[in-house]
Design goal:
Distance between the termini: 31 Å
CATH topology: DNA polymerase, domain 1
Shape: globular
CATH architecture: Orthogonal Bundle
Radius of gyration: 12 Å
Helix content: over 70%
Strand content: under 5%
Number of domains: 1
Structural class: mainly alpha
Largest sheet: none
Oligomer: single chain
Mean pLDDT: 84
Length: 89
Amino acid sequence: MIDKKKIIYKKLIYKMNYSGSKELTHLFLNFINKEFNNLTLDELLHTERLLELGDKIILDLILNVELTPQSIDLDLKNIINKIKKTISI
């Protein structure tokens, strides 16, 4: 199981570094580095799905700028809440 988590971790780090804004990359890197050992494989996969939404939507969700779109399921909402707790929002 650890090997799969490390693979997902490396994919997330790559995606964060080569796409998106520096601010959101910094936020996600802090979250992943602080919470990696506490996250399940499923939560890492949900985090990967979250990144596919794009910077503007993710930032708006984290900062509660707009209503949550219906396409955001409970798993993604849980990851967003974990990110908020990690960065103290």
